[in-house]
Specification:
single chain, 7 strands, alpha/beta, two-stranded parallel ribbon, 223 residues
């Protein structure tokens, strides 16, 4: 006895969700991942596009099978192939120096500026983070990076006073890099602000009242 259209759609929905969850469990296909910097930006972006293609096929493939008679080949290719590729070119993959790195690196497709952010929303910008930043200053030019941008509310003391940049400037001078910095615009870092608002980090309770989520500072390092 053939299934009714409603039952077919319900079955397709269940299969799609199961397939999608299965892909997110596997390290090689999950969408939420951070690649090692040694892979490079081009290889990492290509890898992200493949992951997007796999997830798109998992989510929409079962429905395509049901409605195959209602869709043209061009429509199916646009949905299952072209859309993930376009999103993969627009989205920025995340890279790190190592599995326990304190900084995350992103870069848009045609930019020569790498944007860094702390791995955890309420993470301290401590000595290890500072040392990792200097390490990236020496490594990123090998990947075509000319500038490093970092925006964070952590550059301010709880009193609202800007933290000293003297030690950072001295460290950068040793690597022939130059630092400029200024307050970030109010509409900048929207994703970062949202991430800090919804964070469930254990550090949030102790630090939330010492950080202004709406006052961020940005530093630009010219390599």
């Amino acid at each position: 006895m053939p299934l009714s259209p409603v039952m077919q759609i319900g079955l397709a929905f269940v299969v799609a969700i199961v397939l999608f969850i299965f892909l997110q469990v596997l390290p090689s296909t999950r969408l939420n991942y951070k690649a090692p910097l040694v892979n490079g930006f081009i290889t990492t972006r290509a890898n992200m596009i493949l992951r997007l293609l796999a997830s798109t096929l998992a989510l929409f493939g079962p429905f395509f099978i049901i409605f195959i008679d209602l869709m043209t080949l061009d429509e199916a290719l646009t949905l299952l192939l072209l859309c993930p590729i376009v999103f993969g070119l627009l989205l920025n993959p995340e890279l790190t120096l190592s599995s326990n790195a304190r900084l995350v690196i992103t870069k848009s497709l045609i930019s020569h500026t790498a944007t860094l952010h702390l791995r955890e929303p309420y993470q301290d910008f401590d000595r290890k983070t500072y040392q990792e930043l200097l390490q990236l200053v020496t490594l990123l030019p090998q990947y075509g990076i000319e500038h490093i941008m970092l925006k964070s509310p952590m550059f301010y003391h709880a009193s609202g006073e800007l933290r000293s940049m003297v030690m950072l400037e001295k460290g950068l001078n040793k690597h022939s890099a130059r630092l400029t910095h200024s307050p970030a615009r109010r509409l900048d870092c929207l994703l970062g602000k949202i991430s800090m608002l919804v964070s469930t980090s254990k550090q949030k309770k102790s630090k939330r009242h010492h950080i202004s989520l709406f006052r961020w500072h940005q530093i630009l390092i010219n390599l």
